[in-house]
Amino acid sequence: MKLLVTAATFVALISPCPVVAQPREPIKEIGTKCLETILRDCKVLTAGYINSDQGYHDGEPMLAWQTQSGVTFQDGVIGGFVLFQYTAGKWVVADSGFDGWRFSPPRLNEAGLVHIAGYTGGTGAYNVDRLYQWRDRDHAVYREGLQRVDMNAWYETTEMALPEGLEIWKGVQYEFEDPWSGMIARTRLWRPDDANCCPTGGSAVIIFQIEDDRLVVAEILYFARGR
Fold first, then answer.
1. Quick check: 39 and 103 in contact, CB under 8 A?
2. With contact defined as beta carbons under 8 Å apart, do 112 and 65 qualify?
3. What is the CA radius of gyration of the chain?
4. Residue 207 — left, alpha, or beta (φ > 0 → left; ψ -120 to 50 → alpha)?
5. Residue 187's beta-bridge partner residues?
6. pTM of the entire structure?
């Protein structure tokens, strides 16, 4: 996953996210100093702001982020992210994570979903993505708070739905930005005797929907491939 921007140019990163605005009270040193981190020797990789109301109003609700790289005693070199929300006239931490090798800047789609792509180190490049949506207490679309969406429960359902002898061995590529394709993930498929590097089982597109704040499988499109 290629990082799109350095800390020195973090304000320009927001494109192609659909909405961009500078808050009235920027977070001090967001582009140069790791904030709310557990990492040692931490460096800011990307940082910036997203206006969640299509840019019609400058102020709140609004999000800010940092992606970071550093070291922990347990995991060695690792990455992290911190997501801030501007509410009630101040910045608060909405969420953070330090369980991946790298995280991408958050992307906001027209339906109000906020996606932070992330992956682990090693050949598996397993997903540590985060997904959020603006919700109120009655689960209607609202612009005052973020609700995290469970992205893990769908794996077991997908494994059972695949043709016999085909499996997902590595992380998938989530796509939430395109309103025409909806919420999907793309993945290659492995047969039991495949090498880890070289799947021969074709590929699949997994189509999702959100139920009870969980990502669930609505349909799987399977594309076979001969040996």
1. no
2. no
3. 19
4. beta
5. 204
6. 0.82
Tokens of 86: 């501007």
The Cα 102–Cα 205 span in angstroms is 24
| pLDDT tens digits for range 118-170 | 999 888 889 999 999 886 545 444 445 788 999 998 987 887 788 889 999 99
Query: Over the chain, what HEC string results?
Result: CCCCCCHHHHHHHHCCCCCCCCCCCCCCCCCCCCCCCCCEEEEEEEEEEEECCCCCCCCCCEEEEEEEEEEECCCEEEEEEEEEEEECCEEEEEEEEEEECEECCCEECCCCEEEECEECCCCCCCECCEEEEEECCCCCEEEEEEEEEECCCHHHHHHHHCCCCCECCCCCEEECCCCCCCCEEEEECECCCCECCECCCCEEEEEEEEECCEEEEEEEEEECCCC
Instruction: Give the contacts of 6 (CB within 8 A, at least 6 positions apart).
Output: 45, 46
Q: Which residue has the tokens 């597109």?
A: 205
Q: Which residues contact 183 (CB under 8 A, 6 or more apart)?
A: 113, 175, 176, 207, 208, 209, 210, 215
Distance of alpha carbon 156 from alpha carbon 93, whole angstroms: 31
The three-point CA angle 80-183-104 to 5° equals 20
- Burial degree of 190 (CB within 10 A; 0-12, 13-18, 19+): buried
- Other beta carbons within 10 angstroms of residue 110's beta carbon come to 11
Tokens representing 130 are: 């985060």
